[in-house]
Amino acid sequence: MVGKAEPVNGSVKSGSNQSIPATMQSPLKKSDLIPNLSLKTLKLKTKQQELLIRVSILCLVYVLAFITRLFSVLRYESMIHEFDPYFNYRTTLFLTEKGFYEFWNWFDSESWYPLGRIIGGTLYPGLMVTAAIIYWLLRFLRFAIHIREVCVLTAPFFASNTTLVAYFFGKEVWDSGAGLVAAALIAICPGYISRSVAGSYDNEGVAIFALLLTFYLFVKAVNTGSLAWALASAFAYFYMVSAWGGYVFIINLIPLYVLVLLITGRYSMRLYVAYNSMYVLGMLLAMQIRFVGFQHVQSGEHMAAMGVFFLLQVFFFLDWVKHLLSDTKLFQAFLRITVTTAIGVGAIALGVGMASGYISPWTGRFYSLLDPTYAKDHIPIIASVSEHQPTAWSSFMFDFHILLFLFPAGLYFCFKRLSDATIFIVMYGLTSMYFAGVMVRLILVATPAVCLISAIAVSATIKNLTLVARAKSKVTQTGSVRGSSSSKGSSKPFQRNGAIALLLGAFYLLSKYATHCTWVTSEAYSSPSIVLAARGAHGNRVIFDDYREAYFWLRKNTPPDAKVMSWWDYGYQITAMGNRTVIVDNNTWNNTHIATVGRAMSSYEDEAYEIMRSLDVDYVLVVFGGVTGYSSDDINKFLWMVRIGGGVFPVIKEPDYLVNGEYRVDKGAAPKMLNCLMYKLSYYRFGELTTEYGKPPGYDRARGVEIGNKDIKLEYLEEAFTTSNWIVRIYKVKPPNNRW
Amino acid sequence: MAKSTSKDAQALFHSLRSAYASTPTNLKIIDLYVGFAVFTALIQVVYMAVVGSFPFNSFLSGLLSCIGTAVLAVCLRIQVNKENKEFKDLAPERAFADFVLCNLVLHLVIMNFLG
Where is the chain membrane-spanning (chain B) (predicted)? Predict the structure, then answer.
């Protein structure tokens, strides 16, 4: 019986091994009168069948990546989530209304009152320009769509594009099977979904696409040695620089990779062409972004790339001279002179640059990656962001699931078949895993590497297993290139059964992965953060829309030039939705200004009133979770207000607020805590409210205690608005008393 | 010691010269172009050292245009050189077209950066 090349749906094989010519198939088909829907009736050759399977898999993965991110749009509504995306939304709105020139030169006086902010020069424009271009394109095609819908759906769209890039990258590094698995894994991986759900209109949604694209194009350039691919990778790097500050990772990983290749002796002319053109063109393009400016030649974080650039010049120059000279003794002498001069000049230049301060050292944000304890001691504002904390094991398991143990397996396969591309992917994986361990937010950067390497493991394992499982039908073949197991398959049915059992196990694991990812997306990463949901006493869903209620009240009931003071978390939302001027916002570029607000919040009411009068504050906004049990409120953030305020103004001393080293709000709390502005504003009139059955009035559900100071009187402020669940409270600052 | 190093240097220089004389003319033209670009860059650095570096973006764009075009010319030389086994199936016309395209992009960016 002739072995027909039936397409197996579960495993995708690289069809060139079993190309039975089509002419042998057609006589069988013509005599086959049963009109079944097998692929044979389409009269395709094996290569075309394989292409059809690949394209259909990619289409399905593309659609899957998009729709798995739509949970919050379906459950709530199409709105922007969290805090940072509101700034991006506001700037995109500005861009579409006023045009690129106004956007690029925008000075915003509505935030950081009275300083203002040069928005045109201090943002990464990639995301906004991308959304604006999609918006204009849709408008050109006469789809009258609001810019908010475009913004909400930008991240899922680019996630789908990332799966395509992952496919091509996997194909470049290993083969098309690995590419398909990589695309499927990255489509649903929670580490990526967490920052790219619909509504999460943030830089990372676009930046991961640009990151993977840059890496793919660079590896392609190194593999082919073509200037065109290097130019493409320079453009992709430019897109990455315009999109996210994490481009520093690229500009350090690629030189490190070049260095590793040089040291292991795998260098070639293609490497020279690829790196040099990408570096020069990429650096020039990157300097067009005003926020980046001259950092590529002045900042310590970018010096590695320049150092490797010079090293490559010296290295290949020496290589060329060696090729020219036939006499090795002369070459040794020349080598000695050149190397000593080059190292000497380089060291002197670096030393002078760093000593004179011209080359700035590594900035706080990136230095804390190398020394994780740095931020805690020196820069409390970096330490206070919850995303900057070190990662727990549970986060890794939560975000990666089975990929966590497939990653070392994939590393093993990469080391078995070392090439320029696999060395790159191994380095990317290891460095990004280190950084993911230092900072929770960077799990996102590690996700593509982990997916790719795990895809290699999955693809190689399944390929070997299916070869063993199908060994019976290929007794005559002497075994494919790598499948040493197939030659044993003919006489040992146990091996075949074992292979089938392992295959079933592998499919079970992958299906559990898919279930886990969907569950995680649905439960953990699809909450808009601005709208809260809970279960009522009867199991019904209760929605708390307090934030938007408060911002809308601000928008409609305050004078247009009112200034609002709040903690910096809410700044972007207040400006975007409330349309009022704020004192500090999420950009956190001025630590002293934030410390002033922190000082005001932690002082007694009269001192705080002086500070508020000096800043022209009209309204104060606090977030309070005592009635609903919402735990991300300002009282829980109070310790950071004290620390940041105390960091700049020594009059605020943290021990004044502590009792036995902890912050308390009940009767045993420190007297300064019970009378500071934040406490008064949060708990004003709260002492009369019964929040829970069986508990005394004034029971704080978020802290789980009865508050200490129930009889609060405000002298310089009056309550303006409290939302229906008491989550947001707005107070008006009274003008000073008349003299008589 | 000094005498042997100077004799070494002379021998080095002679053998380099004789080996270089055998390279084809088109490669020598590219080498001349690279030399000219690097020389221009050096003149710019000396000028900057004399008059100061304001405006910095103009200085950088001038310097990087020289270095960039030198680097691209070296890449072209590598791709066109018949002795390089890796590039033997790359047509020299394609290499030159890539070179022109990259130079075009380089100089467009430079013009934007000049200020």
Answer: 32-50, 56-76, 96-114
